[in-house]
Amino acid sequence: YTNCTYVVGNLEIVYLDDPDIAYDMSFLSQIKEVSGYVLIAANYVDYIPLTSLQIIRGSNPFIHEKTGMKVSLLVALNYEKG
């Protein structure tokens, strides 16, 4: 996924929770735009480098199962290693 700056659809970063794995997510630093929603949930990592992300269009919003709420960005239940 090198040089990927535009995500068509949704970006989901979920369940990266094995403390023995050093997840390489450096490719995320180049993403500038997502046409759908961004979901970052239930991760056990030091850093999620979405440093270039500028636009989340939300053309296809995430719908929360229990509340029915529609959102373009959901960040929940993430933990820092160490």
TrEMBL record:
InterPro entries: Rcpt_L-dom, Rcpt_L-dom_sf. Residues 3-75 form the Receptor L-domain domain. Gene3D superfamilies: Receptor L-domain (3.80.20.20). This is Receptor L-domain domain-containing protein. It comes from Arion vulgaris. The lineage of its organism: Eukaryota, Metazoa, Spiralia, Lophotrochozoa, Mollusca. The gene is ORF219751.
